[in-house]
Amino acid sequence: MPLQDLSTSRLTIDRRRAEFADPACEARFLQHCLPERNAQLKTSLLCAAGFYVVFGATDIATLGPTGIAFALIALRVAVALVALGGYLAICRRPESVATSTGASSALLVVALAVFMVVCWYQPGTLPWNVMSQALIVMAVYVNFPNRLGYTVAIGAGSSAVFGAMQVVQGYLKADDVLTLVLLLILSNVLGYLAARRLHLSQREQFCATMLLRQMADRDPLTGCHNRRVLQQGLLAAELARARRYGSALSVVLCDIDHFKRINDTHGHAAGDQVLAGFAGLLQAMTRETVDSVVRYGGEEFLIVLPQTELAGALALAERIRATFASAECRIAEDVDVSATASFGVACVPGMQAAWPLSVDALISAADAQLYAVKHGGRNGVLGTFLFPPPEPVRFGT
Ligand SMILES: Nc1nc2c(ncn2[C@@H]2O[C@H](COP(=O)(O)OP(=O)(O)OP(=O)(O)O)[C@@H](O)[C@H]2O)c(=O)[nH]1
Questions:
Q1: Residue extents of the structural domains in the chain
Q2: Cα–Cα distances in Å, from 46 out to 84, 86, 396?
Q3: Which of 7, 220, 224, 285 is the most interior residue, by most CB within 10 Å?
Q4: Looking at this predicted complex, what is its ipTM?
């Protein structure tokens, strides 16, 4: 879903999960903040790799140069390799949310499993282990971007395993067990609150950005793109795409007939309702994520139809014309207004890179057709090719 098509009305945050309620919005949000999230994750992965290996020195210091100490160091190196593998995967697929989430989750699961093994073989350093577990839990919540649900599962799950391990090893007195449990709960609660706040504020910021973008790009009355979007290159981009792939491109310029009369007879507010109704029809009858409807002027709209031949664009314009002409717009109780509209279509069939075509030329051609319809009595559709299809190349005589 392109960012400009993300309606702000769909951006409801489920505060319990700290995610957007609509999965499509959540997916778009994650894609939007992936570069920032990957930058943070890459730093965290490198730190994790470095610290895990460096802390191998404590294994030697505690256990001496024994087989177990070297086995623990080997496990630490394995964690570093998983972290570096995740780092490389993110560098290779920087656009993949799944890769980012996978790298984060894989490292945390492996690192915490190895940490449990290290703690198991070094029960004498319990206070340090508890402190390390609390720090790791904070890092899980704050430094490794992930879904809040996964983070809670990893943080709370590892704390439960760590606590159970200490009880099984039997080095703790009853009051120490209580302190340990409370410390683990505290680190998880603090981490959870920080992570939840971060998740929510990132999404709130995304909503504000989308709202600003919508206000800048959309016409408030009809919800269509405004002229600014056109000037920023919406049609120019479609022309470039058509040129690159040699595909057809059509535009339809349409205008409500005698709209001034509606305003004069029923008032400006009623005119607004007819305008919004017409725009709604244009948006409903075109392809949601492919075509674009632009409010080009007061009661004039431009429809951009990528990969559409003239016959298809004419058929669409005729369908819209007939539907609008037969529809009635309710402007007040028991007051319906009907209107018609005129359509001018211009098409560039299977575009050739050499054709010197501009946005202005395409719109002018559609405008000329619209002008012809208006002068021919209105409520009609006319279209033209901007360039005739090239002559087939003949070989031999
Ligand atoms: N209600 C309302 N009216 C608007 C809006 N924008 C432009 N108009 C009015 O639309 C009318 C357009 O009138 P004209 O350009 O004469 O066109 P027309 O009456 O539709 O006549 P033809 O296009 O020749 O069929 C003007 O009266 C504008 O004031 C708007 O946002 N809301």
A1: 3-215, 227-385
A2: 7, 10, 67
A3: 224
A4: 0.95
